[in-house]
Structure formats: structure tokens, C-alpha cells
Amino acid sequence: MRPVFALIDCNNFFVSCERLFRPDLEGKPVVVLSSNDGCVVSRSSEAKALGIPMGAPVFKYRPVFKAQGVMQFSGNFELYGDISERITRFLTGITPRTEVYSVDEAFLDLSALNLRDYDQWGSALRQRLLREVGLPVAIGIASTKTLAKLAAEYTKHATDSRGVLDLVRVAPQTRAAYLAQTPIKEVWGVGRRLAPRLRAEGIHNALSLSHLRPRLAQQLMGIHGRQMVAELNGTACYRLEPLGKVRQTIMHGRQFGEDTSDFSVIEAAIASLTARAAARLRAESLLAHRAVIHLSTNRHKPGYQRLSRGISFATPTADTGHITGQLTKASAAAFSPHALYHRADVLLYDLVNEYTVQTDLLNYTDLKAMAASNAKLQAFDAINGRYGPRTIRYAAEDLSAAWQPKRNHRSPRYTTDWQELPTVY
To answer: Residue 147 sits in a domain of what CATH number?
Structure first.
């Protein structure tokens, strides 16, 4: 059976999440800012029309924001993550063959759905998502993931678009016309790094790339380049990565609200980041064999330093307290009181499914302690699941709030905090 992929891509996702509870923002320029409100990470179409680029430093564009009435929001990632999960549940209700590619994108395999009109199906899906979740999306449908990505990008930016582009059942010359209108840097997998090299070879759009000889494509871009050319010509090289695949790593990191040499501030950051990472482990029924803590100073200031310390667990674990204690101990041993630390990252890796874990051969594992830990964590997660995240937490998380990124323009966490639920009058 020939594969057919649909890419569901949320339009200006962070901005759309903000507008979901603020319909008065529709038609107005809106930007969402990064950690510490440093730069722009999402823009409405109206903000793009004002010439505000992605990554725009806020301090440089503050006069533009003021003169043009641009609404600013700090990144409300609790809200965005929850809306993303709602969209995923919606899509998996259509077909379980779904790959969550990013927080705002998902691939669907339509091969087994026996659809007669992909364009009509896509339009109906867009309307359902808008009605049931509240977010506008672009949908690209094609025989390969690369073409589906290209179709979705095209329909997001085309002025005559209805939000859906089907490249499966169009004439070859029509498909070629869409490829010709796609700049080379917009092709999935090319980007800014490879685009200059390809332009030097006279390849300026997706159509000219599709005509490239596979051997030359591999010389220029490796095996990935050969696969890219095949995908643009309708031969699927990238399979769907279905939900349920065991992930390899989980990482949580944050830039601090202010640089610090106070270890209690760093300990609070480690505890909070580890709590989030371990909660994700348990939500996906995973355990970690290893963990790493990265601490770094500001790379834009003199004397940049970065320290990394790794730990291994005799038995894989998802116990927040145990992981936090080990990472804090490793950090304390390498901590320099003369450095001003700017960022912390917690990485959990070498992950295994909790149902397939094996104890050690020499039987050093304390099975009673494992059972007690599991019971504690189940109760911990059940309480937080019922009453909201961080209802109960480890005391180390509250040693200091100085590490928390500045979010002076954050909107309420409408869907994840009981105290911030929207009020209807």
C-alpha cells in the first residue's frame, strides 16, 4: 500500500494559544517572548507584517512594539504544553498512526483510512480542530513526509490558501509548480546551513533540488541528501515514528532570572528541573540509568565556564528525590563560588521501559525499597494529578525563587492551575 502522510501544523502556535483565551487579540500584532523575556519566539501574522523577525531582541524592538501597539506575552509553556497534548489526543482519535514531531506539528499516516477526497477530509479536520480545540492549523498531504511538510508550509503563507494542500492527487506539472515556488532554504532538512552550498551549485528551489542526481546529492549532503531528493520525487524514505516508541533522553533546562554564585539558588533550580524531568519519566513509564547536570556561566561575558557532572544508578529509577540528591551532590563537588552561573540543564538518559527493567545479577537491589519508592511516587503523582502540578513537592524546590526566569508579561495558566482558571461573567 502506497503511504500517504498528512502534516498538521499549528499556525503561530504560541500566539494562537494566547488568543484562545483572548479573542480581543484577533487581528492585532502579538509576540511571545523567550525565557527572561529576551527575544521573540512566536509572532502573529500582523507582527510579521511589521517586519519583526524571529529571534528579535526585545531591547532593540521596544520602540517598534510601543509605536505599533504590539502586545507582548512571556512564554506560558505550561499552557502551550497542555494545548499541545489536547491536539495530540484529538489526532490519535482519528488514527493511532500518529507521530508527534514537535509541540505544534504532527504527522498522520492516512494509508489505512480509505479516504476518497483528501482535500475535503483536510478541510473538515481543520474546521473540527478550530471548533473543538480552538486553534487554526495548516495541513499538507503528500506521499512523503518531506512533500507533506512542503505543502503545509506553502499553504501557511499563500494568500489564496484555504489551509489545506493535497499533493497526492494533483497533476505532475501542478506539483512541480509548487516545488518551484519553494525556496531551497525552506525545504525540510536543508535550512540555513546547507542552503548556501546548494545555491552555489545553482540549486535555488525545491524543484531544482528534485532534479539533482542522487549521487551528487549524497556528495553534497550525505545520505540524508540522497533521501531528500527521493522524497521530493515521491519515494518515501522516512517512516512514521509512532507514539509509544521509547525515547532516548529527557532534558529540562532554564536560563536563570539573574546570574548567581549562591549554591542554594542552584540547588533549588536542580530540584525543580529534576522534578519536571522525573515526572515525564513516570508519565511515559520510563526509568533512567544515567543523569547529567550541566551548569554554565554567561557565554557572552568574559571567563565563560561550563561544568558537567554525570551519575549512574545501579538500578534504573524515576525517583525524583533520589535523582535530585545525587545530582545536587555531584554539583556541589564541582561548584565554584567565584563563578556567576547563568543556566542549568538536567539530562536523563539511557532510558528503559519500567516493565522490562532487570535487577542486578548479584542481587544488591533492595526490592522492598523499590516497592516503597514506587508506592510513594504513585501517591505523589496522584495528588498532583488531581489538585494540580506542584501541589506537593520536595522542599529543595522552595530554597529560592531567584533562579526562576523573568516572565513579566505571562498570561494566566488557564488550563493547568486552579487559581488561574478563566472566569466567565
So the answer is: 3.30.70.270
Q: How far is Cα 215 from Cα 361, in angstroms, rounded to an integer?
A: 50
Number of domains in the chain: 3
Banded model confidence at residue 418, pLDDT cuts 50, 70, 90: confident
Distance CA 30, CA 76 (A): 14
CA distance 105 to 117: 22
Residues 198 and 151 in one domain: no
Q: What is the CATH number of the domain that holds 215?
A: 1.10.150.20
What's the domain range around 82? 1-163
Cell for 81?
504544553
Q: Are residues 85 and 39 in the same domain?
A: yes
At which of 145, 163, 181 does a domain end? 163
Handedness of CA 103, 107, 113, 115 (dihedral sign): positive
352 & 393 share domain: yes
End-to-end Cα distance, the chain: 53
**3-state secondary structure at position 142:** strand
pLDDT above 70 for 225: yes
Query: Does residue 412 lie within any of the structural domains?
Result: no
Q: Which amino acid is at 113?
A: L
What percentage of the chain exceeds 90 in pLDDT? 68
Last residue of a domain, one of 215, 245, 275: 245
The yes-or-no verdict on residue 246 having pLDDT over 70 is no
Helix/strand/coil for 367: helix
- pLDDT value, residue 191: 80
Can you give the pLDDT at residue 363?
Answer: 56
**DSSP per position, 164-209:** EEE-SSS-HHHHHHHHHTSBGGGSTTTHHHHHHHHHHTT--BHHHH
* Residue 248: predicted pLDDT: 84
From CA 28, how far away is CA 52, in angstroms rounded?
14
Give tens-digit pLDDT for 318-373: 999 999 999 999 999 989 999 999 999 999 999 988 877 665 555 566 667 777 88
- As a whole number of angstroms, the distance between CA 56 and CA 46 comes to 15
Pairing verdict, β 71-74 and 249-260: unpaired
Stated pTM of the model: 0.83
Q: What share of the chain is helix, strand, coil (3-state, %, to 5)?
A: 45, 20, 35
Q: Judge whether 404 and 37 are in contact, CB under 8 Å.
A: no
